[in-house]
Amino acid sequence: MIIVGLTGGIGSGKTTVAKEFNLLGIPVYIADEEAKKLMNRSKIIKRKLIQLFGEKAYINEELNRPYLANIIFNDKSYLEKMNAIVHPKVAKHFQKWVQKQDAPYVIKEVAILFENGGDKACDFIITVVADKALRIKRLLKRDDTTKEKIEAIMKNQWSDEQKINKSDFVINNNTFETTKLQVLRVHNDILQKAGIT
Ligand code: ATP
């Protein structure tokens, strides 16, 4: 199966673009969402996260996100430790999911792809970009957040230039109409490169 990684900075429009691919019949795996589900479902992950963060890591069987976020904010090494527990399980879950798909290729949406070396497991990579001011405006509308928080996250991610340099395709998501056209073009390019058409 051909794996197409879909990435981009916070609020660039990854999920919006992924939905467009899905409308073309392409299965989409949203890695962050699946990781969140596994953190609540998998007994092994739960046990290991409780070992790492303590009993307060879960409240009523649900991951206590604010508690974890606070610990990670004060000591970044906890993020690596948490990823070392969660990422291998998500990778396995993804492999199982891929085996069930019947399509010319699949899309794996991953916010932090290059930063974790996840690009190596992809056949093609699409990076979604949009102007920074537009991303901030869209995120302020979508989430209960602040400009400062968004900018702090942006600083921790690779720049668009770094991502573009290592990508096969770039989709500029400044306007929805042009995004749709680019998705169609990239879809056809992937099919052609993969020798499917
Ligand atoms: P995150 O980094 O948080 O995972 P994301 O990259 O997946 O975000 P989306 O959730 O797709 O980004 O988009 C962020 C917000 O911007 C959403 O509310 C979405 O509806 C809006 N949005 C995305 N693309 C466009 C567009 N082309 N025109 C208008 N609004 C858009």
TrEMBL record:
The keyword ATP-binding applies. GO terms for molecular function: dephospho-CoA kinase activity. It catalyses: 3'-dephospho-CoA + ATP = ADP + CoA + H(+). PROSITE patterns: DPCK. Keywords: ATP-binding, Coenzyme A biosynthesis, Cytoplasm, Kinase, Nucleotide-binding, Transferase. Pathway: Cofactor biosynthesis; coenzyme A biosynthesis; CoA from (R)-pantothenate: step 5/5. It holds the Pfam family CoaE. ATP binds at G11, S12, G13, K14, T15, T16. The keyword Cytoplasm applies. Its main location: cytoplasm. Gene3D superfamilies: P-loop containing nucleotide triphosphate hydrolases. It is found in: Cytoplasm. Its EC number is 2.7.1.24. PANTHER family: BIFUNCTIONAL COENZYME A SYNTHASE-RELATED (PTHR10695:SF46), DEPHOSPHO-COA KINASE-RELATED (PTHR10695). NCBIfam families: dephospho-CoA kinase. Catalyzes the phosphorylation of the 3'-hydroxyl group of dephosphocoenzyme A to form coenzyme A. Belongs to the CoaE family. HAMAP family: Dephospho_CoA_kinase. This is Dephospho-CoA kinase. The lineage of its organism: Bacteria, Pseudomonadati, Bacteroidota, Flavobacteriia, Flavobacteriales. The gene is coaE.
